[in-house]
UniProtKB/TrEMBL annotation:
<dbReference type="InterPro" id="IPR003658">
    <property type="entry name" value="Anti-sigma_ant"/>
</dbReference>
<dbReference type="InterPro" id="IPR036513">
    <property type="entry name" value="STAS_dom_sf"/>
</dbReference>
<dbReference type="Pfam" id="PF13466">
    <property type="entry name" value="STAS_2"/>
</dbReference>
<protein>
    <recommendedName>
        <fullName>Anti-sigma factor antagonist</fullName>
    </recommendedName>
</protein>
<dbReference type="InterPro" id="IPR058548">
    <property type="entry name" value="MlaB-like_STAS"/>
</dbReference>
<feature type="domain" description="STAS">
    <location>
        <begin position="10"/>
        <end position="107"/>
    </location>
</feature>
<comment type="similarity">
    <text>Belongs to the anti-sigma-factor antagonist family.</text>
</comment>
<dbReference type="GO" id="GO:0043856">
    <property type="term" value="F:anti-sigma factor antagonist activity"/>
</dbReference>
<dbReference type="InterPro" id="IPR002645">
    <property type="entry name" value="STAS_dom"/>
</dbReference>
Length: 107
């Protein structure tokens, strides 16, 4: 897993899972705490996430809200969009361009 960027926009790549959760949490919390306005997470290079990784995203979302910021997901890969829809988190998280639920393949 890698995260590059600054307090306004971060690109998350690789696997966001139980192994990388602690490092990702630290980077995301620092970015939230050090910036103002929207924090954009570009997920176009993310290969996969598990429940722990999704928990890190939700924790960053809550922390951003407490800091008066908004966490915005950009370029969410289709398989991860399906997970957001299945968990109904697409209704809570800000997703740039939204998720076309009707266009996602059924599993």
């Amino acid at each position: 897993m890698f995260i590059r960027g600054d307090h306004a926009e971060l690109v998350v790549g690789g696997r966001l899972d139980v192994r990388s959760a602690a490092d990702a949490r630290t980077v995301l919390h620092t970015a939230v705490d050090d910036g103002v306005g929207d924090l954009v997470l570009d997920l176009s290079e993310l290969d996969s996430w598990d429940a722990t990784g999704l928990g890190v995203i939700m924790g960053a979302h809550r922390r951003a809200g407490r800091c008066g910021r908004r966490l915005v997901l950009r370029d969410v890969p289709p398989q991860m969009q399906r997970l957001l829809v299945a968990t109904r988190l697409h209704r809570i998280l800000a997703i740039e361009g939204g998720i076309g639920v009707e266009s996602l393949p059924r599993v």
